[in-house]
Amino acid sequence: MSSSPAPSGTGPITDPAPLSLCAREPRVPAERLVAEMVPPPRFDSVRFSTYVPDPNQPSQTEAVRVLEDFAAGLGGTADSGRRRLFGFGRAPKKAPAGPRGVYLDGGYGVGKTHLLASLWHATPAEPARKAFGTFVELTNLVGALGFQQTVQTLSGHRLLCIDEFELDDPGDTVLVSTLLGKLVDAGVALAATSNTLPGKLGEGRFAAADFMREIQGLSARFRPLRIDGEDYRHRGLPEAPPPYSDEQVTKTAHATEGASLDAFSPLLEHLARVHPSRYGALTDGIKAVCLTGVRPIPDQSTALRLVVLADRLYDREVPVLASGLPFDQLFSEEMLDGGYRKKYFRAISRLTALARDAAKLANTR
After folding, report:
1. Neighbour tally for 290: CB within 10 Å
2. Which end of the chain is more exposed for a tag (fewer CB within 10 A), N or C?
3. Per-residue pLDDT tens digits for 230-277
4. Full DSSP string of 160-172
């Protein structure tokens, strides 16, 4: 089929039209949710040896040592791992009392996810017997499979790593706490992270005390491991780049292979129609996200959906180029002072890092 000639005075359009997140409505089978419980692409190659402790923060060096020992203690063959770990002649019906997990307690950007992924990689078991996911992804898995099927699916694992453990929703906390109790009884080792608020280290800590209180009966199974330090995403780096113009963002989207281009408000509306468990699939194949007209988030539900999208983009190292307001003005003071504040600070930190990455795209156009 022949194409119509270009209008007089113009040349053919050579840049492919950018993709659109709003045009995507992914369907994700439950099997994929299980298969994707591995460290995200950003952490594919991290290891304990690639973690660079801050020399001014001895707790970081100590964390590496403890986690290396923890991983080594999970050794053994697929059939004898539990027997050798606990020193019994046969697999116990219940895991013994005492620490059966580690809880990485620290602020934003101190490398907790790096260490958690390193633990997953260092644990001597095939990938199918290790699981790694965020708290939200774990609750989504329960929603997709049902509680009993999730217990059955994960009970054969040697290790379950939970990143960004959240205590915001009492129902979800009870659900996951009950799930973890079942898994510990089945012999599964646990590791988890969460965040303290920026500037709040040492005062009103979110992490260890609240975590141990909320998981109640499981608290004796975790050894809290404090990791101090400043956010590495801002350590020695320039301030986040200011927003670009709509024209710059659009031009970059058209000139960047695999880029998406969406107006911010319609994207927020689209996220309401896609379950958060599908946000990873929503970004499949996307090399850069370009947004026009970024504005303050209007309500809490919308804000929480954006947090999940920010996490998936950060995991996949997808740069974000935007016009409108800078990302540190996304959330109102009321939101930042409320019960979900830790999520919003995390999203700001991660989107800022992705905005720095996107500056390279804009500056080469």
Report:
1. 27
2. N
3. 766 555 545 667 899 999 999 999 999 999 999 999 999 999 999 888
4. EEEES---S-HHH
